[in-house]
From TrEMBL:
Residues 22-258 form the GSCFA domain. InterPro entries: GSCFA, SGNH_hydro_sf. Transmembrane segments: none annotated. This is GSCFA family protein. It comes from the Bacteria. It holds the Pfam family GSCFA. GO terms for molecular function: hydrolase activity, acting on ester bonds. Coiled coil: none annotated.
Length: 316
């Protein structure tokens, strides 16, 4: 008897190697994947504009990185005693304009350089909803807790969704490596504040738009992350206490399925050993002068040196 509907990720012909660069962008699930790559000591860069949720805002962010646009103070607004960019997550907010701009522009420069060496892009869309900032009559990526009266919320049209996704693909194919693989996912996190029915409509529009755009494109794939959590892991024990976000067990399950489909054998061994080293490094002792503890550290350092020989980029 079967008691669950297992959802698989199709095996990729092109595998992720130990020296490949992985760029991720979008909602918080993109960040979860980035953290897993970083723990495994694979070169990874995530969300240069902070967490963003809809395809239009992702396209705008990628465009700014491609153009290597340098933000000026005129691109910021002053709200809630902070200088903010409506294109960025609130983590870029600062009481001082120059600090906000320094972080924004540094991220853009770093991302532009990183994308030129990127082999895989993971793009996670969370919603089809977007907000228009009425005082400037422009669509924004984040509302920064500015009063709701200054915004108008609406669903992106199918044309806006497909156009944003298409333009994003075109930019990435131009700036990244020639054989870059672009992997699309829809976040399994339900936006319950939009409403349950509204969230389902929003996710459905995303899935429809992605499949329409990538149909026939060899370098673009859809990863059924949303379907894995909704169908394969259809139980609240796989969620955090808020019953919305997947817990560490669910993320690990999806990560392993992804790895089985996309990692080379060498990468699997490399990441597995690095994960063991990370776990060992968390070990603490009350007496760090203890000879046995020093011997333990020496063994860990030897393992790190052996791992370092396998790659050119710096690890740990």
């Amino acid at each position: 008897m079967k008691f669950r509907t297992e959802v698989d990720i199709n095996e990729s012909e092109k595998k992720i190697g130990v020296e490949d660069c992985i760029f991720s962008i979008g909602s918080c699930f993109a960040t979860e994947m980035h953290e897993k790559f970083s723990e495994g000591q694979i070169q990874s860069l995530n969300n240069p504009f902070g967490t963003i949720f809809n395809p239009y805002s992702v396209f705008q962010a990628i465009q700014q990185v491609y153009d290597a646009k340098e933000y000026q103070e005129s691109d910021l607004i002053l709200a809630n005693d902070n200088y903010i960019s409506l294109d960025h997550h609130s983590s870029f907010d600062s009481r001082y304009a120059h600090k906000s701009l320094e972080k924004i522009n540094q991220n853009i420069e770093e991302s532009n350089q990183f994308l030129q060496n990127t082999s895989f892009v993971i793009m996670t869309f969370g919603t089809s909803y977007i907000y228009e900032f009425l005082p400037k009559n422009r669509l924004v990526a984040n509302c920064h807790k500015i009063p709701q009266k200054f915004f108008e919320k609406r669903l992106l049209s199918h044309q806006e969704l497909t156009s944003s996704i298409n333009k994003t693909i075109e930019i990435l194919k131009d700036i990244c490596k020639d054989d870059v693989q672009i992997l699309f996912t829809v976040s399994p996190v339900r936006h319950t504040k939009d409403g349950i029915v509204e969230n389902q409509l929003s996710k459905s529009k995303l899935i429809t738009a992605i499949h329409e755009v990538i149909s026939g494109k060899e370098n673009c794939q859809y990863l059924p992350v949303y379907e894995i959590l909704m169908d394969d892991l259809r139980d609240y024990r796989f969620y955090k206490d808020d019953l919305i976000h997947p817990n560490s067990q669910a993320v690990q399950y999806i990560w392993e399925k992804f790895g089985n489909a996309y990692f080379s054998d060498e990468t699997k061994v490399f990441i597995n050993e690095n994960n063991k080293i990370v776990t060992a490094l968390t070990h603490k002792t009350a007496d760090d002068k203890n000879p046995k503890y020093q011997e333990f550290l020496d063994k860990i350092n030897l393992r790190i040196k052996e791992q370092q020989k396998k790659v050119k980029h710096k690890i740990f």
